[in-house]
Amino acid sequence: MINFKKNVLLFIFVFSTGCGFSPLLNSEKINFYISDLKIEGDREVNKYILYNLKKFKKPTDNSKKYNLIILSNYKKEIINRDDEGNPKNYNLNAKISVNVISNGENINNKIFERNILLSAKAKKITEIELERKYKENLSNLLSEDIVFFLINQ
Length: 153
Fold this sequence. Notes:
Blueprint: H1 2-18, E1 32-40, H2 43-53, E2 64-81, E3 87-102, E4 105-119, H3 124-151
Parallel strand pairs: 1-2
Antiparallel strand pairs: 2-3, 3-4
Helix pairs in contact: 2-3
């Protein structure tokens, strides 16, 4: 039984190291840094985006310098109601507009948008906590969208 476990572990190790896996955001692919970052709009969305983009503020060799202006917007819309008129489901929408500036010239404008559905909960505190978690997840996904967009510039 011990030999079987060792063989399985060896097989998994060899397979995972030889499969060519590399993380999407490895440091070799990052060819930019963010020199100046201005964010306006929804405070919570901005907080998460700023936290995620902070690691890209350090200049590296032969990297492009970008200045970003980000405008964020967050909406919580009622999708449908129950028979009594109480909200049943919500659509949470986070949208950002990114203006990329390099060498004093406006290079590109891009709009990113993410949605997620939230069903109403009996306890409003549970619903608020879940909405906050979803808002953070949407902001993290939007941050990744910005990074992938800048990598492909």
